[in-house]
Structure to design on (192 residues):
């Protein structure tokens, strides 16, 4: 698989659907972020992979809403993980979104217990936003971590508290190489 395709692969390993939404931008803080939901088809594919395909197909406005919600959640989550006060504008936007997009729980037992499909893409986003708020405001917030790679700063859940980097192997490799070089440089300095 070419590197460009790999960079466009969806991240579904961040620990929660809302965290996977944040990962729809790769190297979000780098000089060339990678937009993984650049088109309506890609957004529909992402929704399907997360079992959130709405009854009504998503429209361009839904794609814009998903990107906007993603960045609002990112701002609030980064502040939460950093144990800082979340930006007031982001909190107000998230609150407004939740008040205007309701998605009542309707269960179905066809085959296995599950929620009925969201009627619209906005309802799917509402589920994602509520999941985020539940995790960010409850005790599970303590399982959240931020990748230390400055171009990534990807957020992920780590209930075992054993991970340092996000699930991207690239971040872990870069971090380990940098740490090895630092140790070698420190060792060279003490030998002199």
């Amino acid at each position: 698989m070419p590197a460009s395709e790999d960079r466009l692969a969806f991240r579904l390993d961040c620990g929660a659907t809302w965290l996977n939404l944040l990962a729809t931008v790769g190297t979000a803080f780098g000089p060339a972020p990678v937009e993984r939901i650049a088109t309506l088809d890609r957004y529909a594919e992402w929704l399907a992979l997360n079992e959130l395909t709405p009854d009504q197909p998503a429209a361009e406005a839904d794609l814009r809403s998903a990107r906007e919600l993603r960045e609002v959640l990112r701002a609030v989550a980064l502040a939460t993980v950093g144990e800082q006060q979340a930006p007031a504008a982001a909190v107000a936007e998230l609150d407004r979104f939740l008040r205007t997009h309701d998605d009542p729980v309707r269960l179905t037992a066809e085959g296995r217990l599950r929620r009925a499909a969201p009627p619209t893409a906005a309802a799917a986003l509402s589920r994602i936003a509520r999941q985020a708020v539940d995790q960010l405001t409850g005790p599970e917030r303590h399982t959240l971590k931020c990748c230390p790679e400055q171009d990534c700063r990807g957020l992920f859940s780590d209930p075992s508290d054993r991970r340092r980097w996000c699930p991207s192997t690239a971040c872990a490799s870069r971090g380990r190489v940098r740490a090895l070089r630092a140790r070698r440089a420190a060792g060279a300095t003490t030998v002199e």
User: Anything to note?
Assistant: The helical segments are 3-8, 17-22, 40-49, 60-81, 88-100, 121-137, 169-191. The chain is about 50% helix and 5% strand.
